[in-house]
Amino acid sequence: MLLGLILGYFVFLAGIELFNQVWLPQMRDAGASGGLGPVGFLAMLALYVIVAYGLMNAAFKLIDLLPSAVLDWIGGRAGAGEDGGERAGGTAVAGFSRLSAVRVGARSRRGGAGS
């Protein structure tokens, strides 16, 4: 996990540096051509924050992904390639499909699909 944190930090630094090199000249050009105004500036700032936050989340996922990949690689975990979120999603889908089957069965026993 510590290695994932350190690698995530360096991946984030590289990603945000690349993003800054692309974003800042575009921001200057947009402001110089006609002026952004306060609403335009806030919109650009909000977009920057959203993209930077997404980059940060993607980079620091290495804290979780790296140990999982190592355990899968050495064969130390059953159910490889599936994390808790995927299992929870599958359980929820199965529950909803069972519930819909029960409702459809109840309608057919009542003699119609009216209610």
Brief sketch in words of this structure:
This protein is mainly α and 115 residues long. 84% of the residues lie in helices and 0% in strands.
Overview of this protein structure:
The protein is an all-alpha fold. It has 2 domains: 2-78, no CATH class; 82-110. 84% of the residues lie in helices and 0% in strands. It has 4 helices and no strands. The longest helix has 33 residues, at 2-34. The chain is flat and about 70 Å long. The model has no long low-confidence stretch (mean pLDDT 77).
**Broad shape:** flat
- Write down the domain tally: 2
Helix content: over 70%
Please provide the count of β strands: 0
Class by alpha and beta content: mainly alpha
What proportion strand? under 5%
Unreliably modeled segments: none
Separation of the first and last Cα atoms: 53 Å
Could you state the order of secondary-structure elements as H and E?
HHHH
Largest sheet properties? none
Features:
115 residues; mainly alpha; 4 helices
List the helices and strands and how they pair.
Elements lengths: L1 H33 L2 H24 L1 H13 L9 H27 L5
Helix pairs in contact: 1-2, 1-3
